[in-house]
Design brief:
heterodimer; A: MetI-like fold; B: mainly alpha; MetI-like fold
């Protein structure tokens, strides 16, 4: 049954509306990032000069532009990458064994613990802000990479356990039983059988934990004092009451999208499982 | 697993240690802060003024006796309901459109449409926040350029009373793809035969949607909307970046109020009370959700 012409026209119209809604703001912002620093595209014209100078200024500092922001966000990018990598390392190493047990064993206590993770995942971050700020201040961990990474690892611990458990569920238990019959100890099975088989799933989980830390804003805001400022803080910092460097702000925004764009457009098929914490496959 | 392998004591102890590890971590960095926020909410704690006194429920009385706090609470729910409601309709509509495009044209078209719809997801929230703030500025923003084209006045929109609604629009723009992706995946997994059978039996497209497709999607919708609602309720970044709760307190929600009381007014005790009030609702929802699911399983 071929759909009628009118129906196909309606569908195309719908696509056009959707594309305008998502692409138009994006395209205009892209144009701003490519305009000479200090200038804004007038109304809806393509500017005479398209240049990558804002990107240069954002990455390498003020020598690229006469007017505009004189600072580089490169240190912030490095901070973000360090914090997110530490968060991944902590979160995965602490949660992997636990996820394995949740996958292979059943008990009342385990069920309660597993459901309790939902409570942690849904707690408003601001409710934890004051005590965590005071704790980190007490341990001298404010404005350090490890302090922020510890908090980010805590925030993504439930996600990490849920996702890895889901991937281990997909590994047939017979493989372990074979190793068991051959006399391998539990720790040996975990290290030489489960870990290699679960590696792709762990990689996907690591991406989610990484991105969650990479985009996190509130704890970065309260815990950083300049030296450990992450990229979201730097980008928000462009937009101040006194002066806003729009072109550099746009360029920094586009640079910040690279990890998310890579993940969403390359590993898109894992996305739904991760977004819903494994509840919907 | 029926016959448990590794049931010897040593393996079981190892497993116990492994499963406990993240919970020890969470005890230190989650449970202790939760205890601490409740304890602090009963104190007048302002380190900047060297004040630290036990005052019982005074913070709560002060907050709940202030009409503005009730506005913050109301606004938090308005924000959640409007954003989730709109994102839900747009997300489901977009998913149905994608499926329809896939049928009427080709799967490749549907795939392209999907890539376009999820574009806002590659923005980190901070970047989406500053981008939209910029779009609403009086002289440079494209929103005002469009208004001027139609002869309407340009305004610095984020310092008007419309600010709160414009932040909600940004939230909807940024998070609709989240629900869209979930609904699209669910729609594509629906058994096509069931829908075709309904159509063959004479159901119109609308009837098939309401009486066949929607009921089959219900479990997915329930989970997705619950997660999205609780995430939206916690929303902080767009509001903080775009308006900081202003102008005045006109876009202040519970989250913003907690943050401001703590880190701008430096009243840690009162902020903790706001923090406790903020987390009551999500806790209630999660416990209800688990209880309902338990009831259904049994």
């Amino acid at each position: 049954m071929k759909p009628s012409l009118a129906r196909r026209a309606m569908l195309l119209l719908g696509c056009a509306v959707v594309a305008t809604w998502t692409v138009f703001p994006f395209a205009w912002y892209l144009l701003v990032s490519l305009t000479t620093p200090g200038h804004i595209p007038r109304r809806f014209e393509i500017p005479d000069v398209l240049t990558l100078r804002s990107y240069g200024a954002v990455l390498f500092g003020g020598d690229f532009v006469e007017v505009g922001a004189k600072f580089s966000v490169l240190p912030n990018i490095v901070n973000s990458l360090i914090v997110a990598s530490l968060a991944v390392a902590i979160s995965i190493s602490v949660s992997f064994g636990s996820a394995y047990v949740f996958s292979r064993r059943r008990s009342r206590l385990l069920t309660i613990a597993f459901n309790g993770l939902l409570l942690i995942r849904m707690t408003p971050a601001v409710s934890l802000a004051v005590p965590i700020f005071l704790m980190m201040s007490g341990y001298g961990l404010l404005d350090t990479h490890i302090g922020l990474a510890l908090v980010h690892a805590m925030l993504s611990m439930p996600l990490s356990i849920w996702l890895i458990k889901g991937f281990i569920d997909g590994i047939p238990v017979e493989v372990e039983e074979a190793a068991y019959i051959d006399g391998a100890s539990f720790v040996q099975v975990l290290r030489h059988v489960v870990v290699p088989l679960a590696a792709p799933g762990v990689a996907v989980t690591a991406c989610f934990v990484f991105l969650a830390s990479y985009i996190e804003f509130m704890f970065a805001l309260i815990m950083s004092r300049g030296t450990a400022d992450t990229l979201p803080l730097a980008i928000a910092g462009y937009h101040s009451e006194h002066q806003t460097f729009y072109n550099e702000m746009a360029a920094a925004s586009f640079i910040s999208m690279i990890p998310l764009a890579l993940f969403f457009y390359l590993a898109g098929r894992y996305m739904v499982g991760g977004l819903t914490m494994g509840a919907v496959k | 697993m029926s016959t448990a392998i590794y049931s010897d004591l040593r393996s079981r102890l190892t497993m116990g240690a492994l499963v406990a590890l993240p919970f020890v971590y969470l005890l230190l960095l989650y449970a202790f802060p939760i205890y601490k926020v409740v304890a602090l909410s009963l104190r007048d704690y302002q380190p900047a003024y060297a004040t630290d006194d036990w005052i019982g429920l005074e913070n709560y009385r002060e907050i709940l006796g202030d009409a503005r706090s009730w506005q913050f609470i109301g606004r938090t729910f308005v924000y959640t309901v409007v954003c989730v409601g709109t994102s839900f309709c747009l997300g489901l509509g977009g998913a149905l459109l994608t499926v329809a495009v896939g049928r009427a044209f080709s799967e490749r078209w549907a795939g392209a449409l999907r890539q376009v719809v999820i574009l806002p997801m590659i923005f980190i929230p901070a970047a989406a926040g500053v981008m939209w703030s910029f779009a609403y500025t009086q002289h440079y923003g494209w929103v005002n350029h469009i208004l001027l084209m139609f002869g309407l006045p340009a305004k610095p929109w984020l310092v008007t009373d419309a600010a709160f609604y414009l932040v909600m629009a940004t939230d909807i723009w940024g998070w609709t793809p989240f629900l869209y992706l979930i609904f699209l995946a669910a729609l594509q997994q629906l058994p096509a035969e069931v829908i075709e059978a309904a159509r063959v039996d004479g159901a119109s497209a609308r009837q098939a949607f309401w009486y066949v497709i929607l009921p089959m999607l219900r479990p997915v919708i329930a989970i997705a909307v619950t997660i999205k609602s609780l995430d939206t309720y916690r929303a902080f970044d767009y509001l903080w970046i775009m308006t900081k709760g202003g102008p005045g307190t006109s876009s202040t929600t519970l989250n913003i109020a907690t943050y401001k009381t703590a880190f701008l007014d430096l009243q840690f005790g009162k902020a903790s009370a706001y923090g406790v009030i903020t987390m009551l609702f999500p806790f209630a929802v999660v416990i209800l959700f688990l209880a309902l699911r338990r009831g259904r399983v049994q």
